[in-house]
Amino acid sequence: MIALVGVTLGQIYAGPLLTQLVAGAAIGSVGLSVAARRLPNWQVAPLSVVGLAGYTALAMYLAARRAGVPGPLGEVFLDAARNGIPRLLTAMIPVEPLPDTVVVPVAAAWLAGFAAAEVALRAGRLLLGYVPSTLLYAGALYVMGPNAESALWPPVAFAALGIAGLALTARPATTPAETAADTAAGPDDGVRRALRLRIVAGHVIGLVTVLALAAGLAPLVSERVNADPVDPRRYVQPPQVESLDESPLIRISGWALNPDQKLLDITTEVMSTNADPPPPEGETADDVADDVPDDVASDVTGGVADEAESTADGDTPVGAGIRIRLAVLHDYDGVTWKVGATYRNAGRVLPPVTPHPDATVDTIRQEITIAELTGRLLPAVATPQRVDGARVAYDPESGTLIRPEGLTPGLRYTVTSVRERPDYNQLSAANVPAGDEVARVLHVGDGVPEQMQRLAEKIAAENGAPYQRALAIEQFLSEHYRFVADAPSGHAYPNLAFFLFGPREAGGQRGTSEQFAAAFAVLGRLVGLPTRVVVGFRPPTGNGPVRAGDASAWPEVLFSGLGWVPFDPLPQPDNQPRPVEEEFKPQPEPSTPPPSPEQTPPVDPTTPSGPELVLATPPRRGPSAPVLAGFGLGTLILLAASAAITILLLRRALRRRRLSEGPPEARVVGAWLEVMDALRLARHPAAAHLSASEVAAHARQVNVPSIRPAVPPIDELAGLLNHLTFGAATVDEDQARAAVAQARAYTEKLRDGQPWWRRLWWSLHLGPLRWHR
Question: Could you point out which of 164, 366, 367, 554 has its C-alpha 20 to 30 Å from the C-alpha of 349?
Fold first, then answer.
């Protein structure tokens, strides 16, 4: 039964070693108790403890030798004994049998075997002797949690062995002679009848109890059959990175101040490639697009970050241009790009990747020796599949590694990675994923600078396909900004706004790869592209030292079916940046109150302007100056009042046509236009590329301090608009009334939260009369 525990727990382990070690512990512990059953108990217990220590050491030795764990065995054993439980509960599934991941199951199996054998053999309590093995089995199921598939035969075999043990150790049946003797010497008939009655009553009561328990527990058990069990790993904190490694993007500026600092040494070997020989050094997606028709090739050029390929016998050094990844940053809150990874202790073999069938896949092996690189992040070519020579923790989502103990000078390890290069010809038609699964890489923090928002809207309006948007952002950054290695660090919204729109004479429009990558990623998310920032190294060759000056950051965009594709927004070394044109540098809308009638001349095309608008000195016989001034002021007030009344009437008529007239479909559209106008009047316009659901989410986030409580939602209105646009072509009268009511409630609440002069300007603004013409 204890050996079956090893079979069950082995479902989350890589290979059969754990099952074999647990079976050995079961045989050793029970066998030792059986062999020493004639000895006193106080002698058997110390003997079993010695056997436990010896067998556990043997199990850890076998696991260490098979996994190639470096370091003295004594230190490895002590480290496994101290950290066995937390590392087992934070290990990546499947768990590789290592000293610290086998010590707990092996020791528990030995102790369970010793306790069960002593209780069953020495005390003769077989049913009580099942308790240790049953508790061990339950503990194995708890450790597995939801990380293994359902298996039927191990629990059935476990129960069958228990039943067989009870049946085989039952009392033997009495012989007929013994039965006759017992009958002759037994009690009289009355006593026998009472005894039979008591036995029957006991059987009936036992049967009723069993049936009641079965009826009460069966529904509870059946409900748990398809339920996911609790994963104990959520209660244990996985390995963490240091604060410096949580946002390594800020380290690039520090490394740039000492570019000759040696961080690590590398030796690269390109082991295999699943496609034809890649283009030589210097070829990018431009060259790949030569065989594409001209109208398509113009789109698939230059946008994808180039990685010069390596050849073993050409002029290009082996491994030249291969990017070494240090960290992948998914999360951005408007202040800092962060790793946000969940690392799990892993063995040498990491989870495999399934590349796209049309992608070129290179198997690359690098031997890396740490020099002066600090922290816990472990450099490796994406995506690592095997790590030898160092204990690592791995984040499958980002494909990055850490060494929980930290990096030390002289640490040497070998990483075998699978690098996937997509088919660039498919990029022009590729789409990007959407929904909750990519919400993390589409999120931007609150407080996006208005200039960045307008720049993103312009890029989105002029470029429809996702790849075209990414290419437009990359070209804009590479053509208008200067790369400066000693630029100050920073990638919060104010830093990026100064980098994009700050005056050059004051240090704006220049930065390191930190600002280029961060600006690309933020602008990409604003136009609907799932992006992330990668920090790593781009050494000139694949063999030799990697220095601080080789550190770099680059953005990546997620395309459906192609995966993460890197881009390179850095300008060429000999490129002279072009001035940022005014259309790419939009000015914010004026936030001052509208001019008063005394400051605004009447809108009259026949009225002269400029120097011609000078009143001549009135003749003495005409009206006096106060009379002329009063007449002019009255005229201005009259014209302004007439214009205001006209605008109010036109706005009321427009609102009436939208919300009260026409078929239900037209009123739903009119309600939506009212909401869009209200957002613009409140200076929170919705970006043109947003869908209706995204506009509804944007509308809920409008922050007007004076609005308490917050503005009501417009989700139902957005759903009706989607239904009208993409579903059925009609809506009923009740739906139209609900949409109009929701639009009225939202716009009135938003308007009431404005200051008095904004409410006045809201009513007199000409925008709604022309915005949707």
Answer: 554
Phi-psi category of 314—alpha, beta or left, where left has phi over 0 and alpha has psi -120 to 50?
beta
Q: Whole-model pTM?
A: 0.61
Residue recorded with tokens 């200039």: 451
Per-residue pLDDT at 368? 95
Residue 89's nearest CA partner among 236, 202, 206 is 236
Check residue 732 and give its pLDDT: 83
Nearest partner of 268 among 466, 557, 541, judged by Cα: 541
Residues 6+ apart with CB under 8 A from 48: 29, 32, 33, 110, 114
For residue 577, what is the DSSP state?
P
**What is the per-residue pLDDT across 690-745, written as a single tens digit (0 to 9) for each?**
788 888 888 887 765 555 567 788 888 888 888 777 766 677 888 888 888 988 88
Q: Please give the structure tokens belonging to residue 415.
A: 């990483």
Q: What are phi and psi of 580, to 5 degrees?
A: -75, 110
- Secondary structure element (H or E) that encloses residue 566, with its range: strand 563-566
Residue spans per domain, the chain:
2-170, 248-279+308-422, 436-584, 627-770
Number of Cβ atoms within 10 Å of the Cβ of 646:
10
Q: Are 551 and 251 in contact (CB under 8 A)?
A: yes
**Token pair recorded at residue 435:** 């929904």
- Mapped onto helix, strand or coil, the DSSP state of residue 661 is coil
Give the integer Cα–Cα distance in Å for 296 and 290. Answer: 10
Could you give the CA distance from residue 394 to residue 391 in angstroms, rounded to a whole number? Answer: 10
CA-based R_g, the chain, Å: 38
Q: Taking CA 582 as the corner, what is the angle to CA 578 and CA 584, rounded to the nearest 5 degrees?
A: 75
Q: Under a CB-based contact definition with an 8 Å cutoff, are residues 600 and 640 in contact?
A: yes
CA gap 436, 175 in Å, rounded: 74
Query: What count of other Cβ atoms lies within 10 Å of the Cβ of residue 428?
Result: 22
pLDDT of the residue at 278 = 40
Contact 287, 279 (CB under 8 A): yes
Contacts of 674 (CB under 8 A, 6+ apart): 655, 658, 659, 743, 744, 747
Q: What gap in Å lies between CA 537 and CA 551, rounded to an integer?
A: 4
The rounded distance, in Å, linking the Cα atoms of 309 and 318 is 8
Integer distance in angstroms from the first to the last C-alpha of the chain? 79
Question: Which tokens go with 621?
Answer: 């016989």
Q: Which two tokens stand for residue 696?
A: 């509804």
Q: Which two tokens stand for residue 397?
A: 């989502």
Q: What is the CATH number of domain 436-584?
A: 3.10.620.30
Low-confidence ranges of the chain (pLDDT < 50): 275-302, 308-314, 583, 585-620
